């Protein structure tokens, strides 16, 4: 079964500081991994995705994530936080299509990022 | 390109009443998803359609929830009767086709409060 654990439900950083949001996954098959961002009263927007190509994935708004199979991690980083980055971030894993799997997305509980001026 | 549209955006009902949500996916997207997002949790898939057929409804509480996607475009999700624990944001998402790592495009959601 697939699952995602996001360490830290709340993260606070100062503007210009490094952003690090942690995600660990459990998957019985090679995973496809995603980070989504949700601004207040809006739907989720894809930041980036890992699809078994490069292990370092670059996304929108300066975010990137590194897939580490040995650590079963897919942490999200941004070198310098901006006030506009304040939002909730969700890590998700897909079990892909084929056999008994249906390509379902399994989401973590989310991490609320606060950026202080 | 217009995004995924959902209505209403907010709904307040009393327990045991019924409610329906509507979703219009991005034009041409074959796959449509309904998620339930309870406060403090990540979205949980309720049902997945491929065109107008159900692909996955294993997590849909079928005693009170139902969904349809007539003609493979718009979709409605209904709850009858509602319970207090159904209070959540209901998200609709669509993707062009079923793929392992297909991006899902989300609508703004409908926030349901059951009193």
Portion in strands of chain B? over 45%
Percent helix range of chain B? under 10%
Separate helix tally of chain A: 0
State mean pLDDT of chain B (0 to 100 scale).
92
Oligomer: heterodimer
The tally of beta strands of chain A, per DSSP, is: 13
The total count of strands of chain B amounts to: 11
Q: What is the string of SSEs of chain B from the N terminus onward?
A: EEEEEEEEEEE
Sheet with the most strands of chain B? 7 strands, mixed
Query: Which word captures the global form of chain B?
Result: globular
Global Rg of chain A: 14 Å
- Helix proportion of residues of chain A, in percent? under 10%
What structural category arises from helix and sheet content of chain B?
mainly beta
What is the molecular shape of chain A? globular
Total number of helices of chain B: 0
Element order of chain A: H for helix, E for strand: EEEEEEEEEEEEE
- Detail the poorly predicted runs of chain A: none
């Amino acid at each position: 079964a697939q699952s995602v654990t996001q360490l830290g439900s709340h993260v606070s950083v100062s503007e210009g500081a490094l952003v690090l949001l942690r995600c660990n996954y459990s998957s019985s098959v090679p995973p496809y991994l995603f980070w989504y961002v949700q601004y207040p009263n809006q739907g989720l927007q894809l930041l980036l995705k890992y699809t078994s190509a490069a292990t370092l994935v670059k996304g929108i708004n300066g975010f990137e994530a590194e897939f580490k199979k040995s650590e079963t991690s897919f942490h999200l980083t941004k070198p310098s936080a901006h006030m506009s980055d304040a939002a909730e971030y969700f890590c998700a894993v897909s079990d892909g299509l084929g056999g008994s799997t249906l390509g379902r997305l399994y989401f973590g509980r989310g991490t609320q990022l606060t950026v202080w001026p | 390109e217009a995004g995924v549209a959902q209505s209403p955006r907010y709904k307040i009902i009393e327990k045991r009443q019924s409610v329906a949500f509507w979703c219009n996916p991005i034009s041409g997207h074959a796959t449509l998803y309904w998620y339930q997002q309870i406060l403090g949790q990540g979205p949980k898939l309720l049902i997945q359609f491929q065109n107008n057929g159900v692909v996955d409804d294993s997590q849909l509480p079928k005693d009170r929830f139902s969904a349809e996607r007539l003609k493979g475009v718009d979709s409605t999700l209904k709850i009858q009767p509602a319970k207090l624990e159904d209070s959540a944001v209901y998200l609709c998402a669509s993707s062009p086709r079923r793929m392992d790592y297909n991006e899902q495009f989300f609508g703004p959601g409908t926030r349901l409060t059951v009193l």
